[in-house]
User: Fold this.
Amino acid sequence: MEWLRRLARQREFMIAVVVAAVFLGMSFASPYFLSSGNLLALLLGLSVEAIIAVAMTNLMVAGGFDMSVGSVVALTGAATALLLVSEVPVWLAVLAGLLLGAAIGTFNGFIVSKVGINPFVTTLSSLSLFRGLTLILTRGKNISGLPDGFKALGQTTVFGIQTPIIIAVVLIAAGDLMLRRFRFFRQSYYIGGNERAARLSGIPVDRMKMLAYVFTGLLAGLAGVVMTARLGAASVTAGTGLELRVITAVIIGGASLQGGEGTVLGAFLGSLLMALITNALTLLGVDVYWQTFVIGATLLAAVLIDRLGKLRAAGAGRRVRAVPARGGKLAA
Amino acid sequence: MSDYVLEARDIVKTFPGVRALDGVHLRVRAGETHAVVGENGAGKSTLMLTLTGVHRPDQGTILLDGRPVTFSSPQEAVRLGISIVFQELSLVPSLSIAENIFANRQPVKRFGAIDFPELHRRARQLLALFDLGGLDPATAVRELGPATQQVVEILKALSTDPKVLILDEPTSSLTDLEARRLFENLRRLTSRGLACLYISHHLTEIFEIAQTVTVLRDGKFVCDARVSDIDEDFLVSNMVGRTISDAYGRRPDPSTLGPVRLEARGLCGAGFTDVSFRVRAGEIVGFSGLVGAGRTELARAVFGADRLVEGELRLDAAAVAPRTPREAIRLGIGYLTEDRKTQGLYLEFPVRANVAANRLDRLSRGPLMSEARIDAAAEKAVRDYRIASGEGDRPVRTLSGGNQQKVLIGAWIGIAPRVLIVDEPTRGVDVGARSEIYGFLRGLAAQGTAIVMISSDLTEILGLSDRIYVMKAGRIAGELDASVATEEAVIALATGAGAGALGGAAAAPAEVH
Assistant:
């Protein structure tokens, strides 16, 4: 029974239970819910954010943060589309899109880890910088007329499942395994747990943080390419607000802004839960304006439940030390 | 009318699953310093939090000037005359001395604007209590040395004009000299009728500053006594419930020491200049000096955490130059930080993750982490170093200071270091765990590791080291053979023997009585 208790303490388990409950409830409440059309549309809808969530989880585990991913999706999508319409070969245009994403990640990572600017401020600047660059490059117009060979990347189906879903699932499985089992990614948890201690433990903190941003930029680039292929056009407003959805999913999945915790599976379940709730509200005929509100409530509920659990755990270990920082301000 | 300004009777306080205080008594007279001692987990902190209104006792009475009181909040305890100075500094570094002292209680003019002239006048009055009347109260706290910051912290507590001042480990970030200066000032305050409740792990301090003492063990009252009637052995045996003999273990015969393991020649870097020293295999070499003498800076540079600008480092006769801690660890050099909470431990992680942190590569198979190897390493550390880790995966934040330190020591001994630098290895650690840590270090040295011990605790330096280097202003001021070294000799080297250097971190004029 020990394994069961251990399982029950995992955040993923808690969300999985909630996801299952919504799933079960909805399958009774709506005849359309369980149709493969509805479920595939739901997964397709979250595939772009799920791809980015894989890298964002690693970044947030290491105590980092990236607000610019939505803009990177738009810019890499637009850049790839621009190359394609000027008849650059598909493979080269895709590669360029991915490299552009990685380059932006390198830029963010350099400013955060080498210059030492706060990740929020850095990537908030990037959010505007690269959304702006998208508008400058495209002169504010969407780009369509992309070759079929490229659109196939986002529109082909394998056993009835669209490629974006397959890409997302493969990345989630690989990402979850890497963060759980690989020594390299285990270092991210230490960096997020205590950056200064991690340095003294011999963990290459700067290099790891840099790579976490590069990885996030790269997957945002991939998401941009996949999204453009799926839509068959690059939209200048693509990915608007996406960063917040991704970060919300990662936090619902068990990560925190302080770092040191979180899993890719949890982030995926968080993303799935948000999509399910939106889907359920639509199917149940609830006014569409409620959707955003309910997402907010879900995030708040997830972190509150987490806090309660931690307080209870701390209660048991109270004997040792419970000195509050006086005044509740910055304790030196 | 009561003899005691503060009295606690039969205090009981339970937390889920733990009886943290179980019938504790405490009696404090006005004008005296009363020490409370006990190992970590003995209930000192809980008792203080109960006396300051943070916790409410389940049973028992608190009397202030003989009248029973109950505190509904910490603010009410302050209003009734009990102020506490916590072990960890709670100052806001960017704000001025005056604003820190009067946080949230600044005198105001119309429309709520802060009356700065009045604020600074009051701050100056308080600073004068500690002979710092010349210090500008508008100075930002971050510009002050640790000793002066400590004073600001105490003034913050004194600014509410308390009857009882509680000090929790006030000397943990001070050198011996700075501590003595603090004691002088405390004596002056108590001579004016203030009662001082003093918590410390340093028993020598208690004999220096306190008149009476209460001993707690496992949440229970053991005894109280007049300090003049007892000695250190009495306190220790009452605290741990057994007798600890020969805390430092036996020094090895110098002829049994191995060859020179680490040799430094002419090291220069930020905070230290032209430092040369050598440590033999199996030797424990103490580094003494004032805070700011450059010892930690030197250690960090040897470990690759900071830049070594110049000089030569030889490990087992081979020239080495670790540029990062990672490289140092690969060479077999370990560094146990002086600040376990902010730079040593991963407080939210369990013991196993902490023990594994500095040797992830050894605890994995190829690129994959081996959970089995991590578990084995953690079990070994818990067993070998007698870490009371609690059940399951509790974060190390919930462990006592001594156990936390043992986790760190376990992690560093775990890399099987050729050289281990330990920086303040027993800071904030209770007496029992302290002698255990000395035993672990002795044992490690006996296996051939060269140990460099930086410590501001003179008794520890004299008791555990085989040889002592004293640093002053970034340079080696002298080398002493520990078997003949005395406290006076070390202090003379650390200060350059000039009385003018005794002033501590702030430029404070010497007290004249």
In short: Chain B touches chain A through 60 residues (CB under 8 Å). Residues 498-513 of chain B have pLDDT under 50 and may be disordered. The first strand of chain B starts at residue 4 and ends at 15.
